[in-house]
Amino acid sequence: MRLILVAVLALLGCNRDRTAEPDPTPAAPVAPLKPGAELLVGTWQVEGFEAASAAGAASAQALQAQVNTPEAQALRIRYGDKNVTIIAPGQLPLSSPYEVLESKPGMVRFKNGTDFVVVTFRDNDHMIVDRQGNAFGAKMKMKRASDVLPAAPGGSAVISLPYGSAKVVGSTSSGHPIVRIGP
User: Fold this and answer.
1) Among 156, 167, 141, residue whose Cα is nearest residue 86
2) pLDDT digits (tens, 9 = 90+) for 2-28
3) Element (H or E) spanning 76, and its range?
4) Residue 127 belongs to what H/E stretch?
5) Residue 116's CB: how many other CB atoms inside 10 A?
6) Quick check: 44 and 113 in contact, CB under 8 A?
7) Kind and range of the H or E run holding 36
8) pTM score, two decimals?
9) What percent of the chain is helix, strand and coil (3-state, nearest 5)?
10) Which phi and psi (to 5°) does residue 130 adopt?
11) How much of the chain exceeds pLDDT 70, in percent?
């Protein structure tokens, strides 16, 4: 009896109408990421923060609380081939050189002042910036932004002229840049 039941179930399974079930849709092919140094070039906007370590959780939370403010949304970071420029509406741009140490698909590691920075890309338009060496730091999540800069909160004009006499020469123990202005 059991053998007959198994045979009937096998026949029913084989003769089942396959048109009733749609074929599974194959996943869209994911294009390989370009080398990180190539992906890095462009204008970026802060999207959020995450702790780089357990010690940095409070710092990441404090930064994350400010992400959606008009000032933070207006901030742009522009990476060129060898310089990074921070552009804040109503303020002079701050620029500093960086040196690429390693670049492979979806990742770039570079030196900016005395800091080593690792950038990983989720895709061509989203990255996570990890300034290493700061136990209290936060990783910065960024998205690619338009080169058109928004107006400053309160309507002041954006100053977009290069300001070559400001240079980041290091960072404080809390991760803030130390800037030298002048020759």
Assistant:
1) 167
2) 434 333 333 334 444 445 555 555 555
3) strand 76-79
4) strand 126-132
5) 14
6) no
7) helix 36-40
8) 0.65
9) 20, 40, 40
10) -120, 105
11) 62
Length of the chain: 183
With contact defined as beta carbons under 8 Å apart, do 119 and 141 qualify? no
Instruction: Return the closest-CA partner of residue 80 out of 110, 117, 43.
Output: 43
59: tokens are 């710092």
Residues 17, 18, 21, 24: what is their CA dihedral angle, to the nearest 10 degrees?
A: 170
Region for residue 59 given its phi and psi (left: phi exceeds 0; alpha: psi -120 to 50; beta: otherwise): alpha
d(CA 18, CA 15): 8
Kindly report each contact of residues 128-132 with a partner whose C-beta sits within 8 Å and lies 24 or more positions away, as own/partner. Answer: 128/50, 130/52, 131/52, 131/171, 131/175, 132/52
What is the C-alpha separation between 36 and 107, in angstroms, rounded?
Answer: 4
Q: What is the DSSP letter of 158?
A: P
Q: From CA 98, how far away is CA 177, in angstroms rounded?
A: 14
Q: What is the pLDDT of residues 72-105, one digit of tens each?
A: 889 999 999 999 999 988 888 999 999 999 999 9
Structure-block tokens of residue 86: 């921070």
